[in-house]
Amino acid sequence: AKNVIATKNGVTLFYFIQSPDFADASLKIIEPASDKDIATPSNVLFKYEVKNFKLTDQTPGAPTCDCNNSNKGQHIHQIINNKPYTARYKDTFYSDLKPGNYINLAFLSRSFHESVKNKNAYSLIQFKVGDTKEKPADLSGPLLFYSRPKGEYLGKDTANVLLDFYLVNTDLSPDGYKVKATINGNEFILTKWTGYGLSGLHQGENTIKLELVDKDGKVIPGPYN
């Protein structure tokens, strides 16, 4: 009854609960500006403007999602250079950055860590810090960013695990671009940009790889695709 898509070797992939879509929510970055050169590496200021979405609120439906939920409420997921995201519960914060080129994606997240997938709910910028020879990446094509799951799941949170990712400049469809998810060696093809659930993951370490592919299954070029 769980909107099951497929089960392979005990791992079941299903459509995640339908939660409020926050169609009017928006996230806009104020600092740093895109393509900015920040001279001194140190604590870099990030400042966002959030509208029609309340950070730290519990998302309606959170008690029934039967999955990991943040008791601190709704937040921003900040992903820097494809590292695991940091949850940000305020619209202004600092990140300690060394010299280099940075790709910074931020998007609004429900309290149970599912991303808000509307065209105004994210911000993607690229900027430089300090003296660096790192070249900027091309961010104009279709882009895939990994979000969940990450870290450790304990107790009842292990029963249903959210699989979620963020797309920029593209969408998925049965006859177009898709995401190939390889979960503990089992391949699943995702044809819809939405939150997915996983059950049947084993105790101990589980591995998940996501790839953005074209209709022939070839990986689409992009820094993290």
Brief write-up:
By secondary structure, this protein is mainly beta. Helices cover 0% and strands 42% of the residues.
Straight-line N-to-C gap: 32 Å
Strand content: 35-45%
Helix content: under 10%
Q: What form results from the Cα inertia axes? A: globular
Radius of gyration, in Å, reads: 18 Å
Whole-number average pLDDT? Answer: 94
Write up what this structure looks like:
The chain has strands at 4-8, 11-15, 26-31, 37-38, 43-51, 75-80, 86-88, 92-96, 100-109, 122-129, 143-148, 161-168, 178-183, 186-190, 196-199, 208-213. The strands form 4 sheets. The chain has a 5-stranded antiparallel beta sheet, with no helix packed on it. Strands 4-10-9-6-7 form a 5-stranded mixed beta sheet, with no helix packed on it. It is built from no helices and 16 strands. A hairpin with a 2-residue loop joins strand 1 and strand 2 (11-15). By secondary structure, the chain is mainly beta. The radius of gyration is 18 Å and the shape is globular. The two termini are 32 Å apart. 25% of the residues are buried.
Descriptors for this entry?
five-stranded mixed β-sheet, globular, 0% helix, 225 residues
Secondary-structure map:
Elements: E1 4-8, E2 11-15, E3 26-31, E4 37-38, E5 43-51, E6 75-80, E7 86-88, E8 92-96, E9 100-109, E10 122-129, E11 143-148, E12 161-168, E13 178-183, E14 186-190, E15 196-199, E16 208-213
Parallel strand pairs: 4-10
Antiparallel strand pairs: 1-2, 2-15, 3-5, 5-8, 6-7, 6-9, 9-10, 11-12, 12-15, 13-14, 13-16
